[in-house]
């Protein structure tokens, strides 16, 4: 099978996104699948926006990191609301993974604050 060029892949992706958009009107997806799709599209959109507005790799990386931090804060606020609404409970299967990720992230954030960097 022949490799597609990036331009060809972009055209294929655009066509697939248009098909998905039409199908979503009549074939609902579970919210988890919609959230996964939204996150993937958001990430791609942010990368494209960063590439289109800056021409240096460092500026693109900086914008992506800023977007990632904003998105992480938004996700944390949503998790807080979900816990307050009892939509997430102690028996939620992904809670231990989240707890570990938050603990490790907080350790690193605290280390940054202590170092003054």
Tell me about this structure.
By secondary structure, the protein is mainly α. The protein has a domain at 89-117. It is 78% helix and 0% strand. It has helices at residues 6-24, 31-53, 57-84, 95-115. The model has no long low-confidence stretch (mean pLDDT 90).
The 3D shape can be described as flat
Order of helices and strands: HHHH
Strand content: under 5%
Distance between the termini: 49 Å
The largest pleated sheet is described as:
none
Radius of gyration: 19 Å
Structural class determined from secondary elements = mainly alpha
Helix content: over 70%
The count of helical stretches stands at 4
Low-confidence stretches: none
Overall pLDDT level: 90
Give a short overview.
With 117 residues, this protein is mainly alpha-helical.
Write the layout of secondary structure elements.
Blueprint: H1 6-24, H2 31-53, H3 57-84, H4 95-115
